[in-house]
Amino acid sequence: MTKRELVLEALSHRNQGKVPQAINFTGDAIEKFADSLLADYPDTQVQQDLQAGILSKAQAVSLSIGNHLLHVYPPWWNWHITSDAFSAVDPPQYLPDTRGYGSYEDFFAQVAHIREKYNVYIVATIYGSHWEKAYFARGIENFLRDLAGNTQWAQSLLDFIIRKNLVMLENILTATEIDAVLLGSDWGTQIDLIMSPKCFRSMIKPGEQMEYDLVKKYGKQVFIHSCGNIVRILNDLVEMGVDCLNPIQSECMDLAFLKKEYGSSLSFYGGISTQQTLPYGTPDEVQDETRRVVDLMSRDGGYLISPSQEIQHDVCYDNIKSLINTAQRYWL
Hints:
The chain contains 14 helices and nine strands. With 332 residues, the chain is α/β, with parallel strands linked by helices.
């Protein structure tokens, strides 16, 4: 079974006796640890592709340590805001300008090469895709105020983002090598949703649904990245067709509850604490937590071994190796 096939089996909630791995790092952590990780988990093909500029350093680390899933980053768009009007308390009477970035030719060539050489599960990853994109334009305090008091303008901004996203998604979804699209919009705090469930359902959910439907139309799976406690909209995400939820922070949501209540309808990607155990624990404690989380969450499939967030630079190297080595025992 290839690495891609093992991820597909896990996402289909079939336990094949092995659990796929998807451990990733922040940019600062890549700068600090990449050379050591590439030396300790060497891979000749990865080194060649890194030197040739086909892989980023983060992607090279991901493949070298044995990940079954690889994040790739398609051409996308950003705001082009040159006026202070968007940081004022009240929004302007127009929407922001935008600029696209990235090369489609380079993106299609990269995913074709990755599929041929590594046969991992490929996730086209778009962080800050909708809700976050909106408050990036206005600032989070202003946009929360807009949701409550400038509702029409807020909805027009959210709708504008979705229209842009759908065009960009259609430009990449014909790539047969892409297995899934991850859309990132952090809807939660450590305690609860940032907005009310009613607000999510009326203003955010319809646009998200259009994106998920488009991804599904092309035969891809839908991954959602949302930090925080989003229990109150998990039924919505299931109804909308989400396949996999990331990052599931154990400090925010009870993992046993998630597995019991949603384990047959959602797959999970994360769960190993990056707030406590990885930065502050010992290698033995990292090993113990990794085993506990994997044994719980991988029952009947539906789980990818991963920290609850990308590993940051404040995690000691011995703890990183303990996590990787423990995870590898579940699939080697």
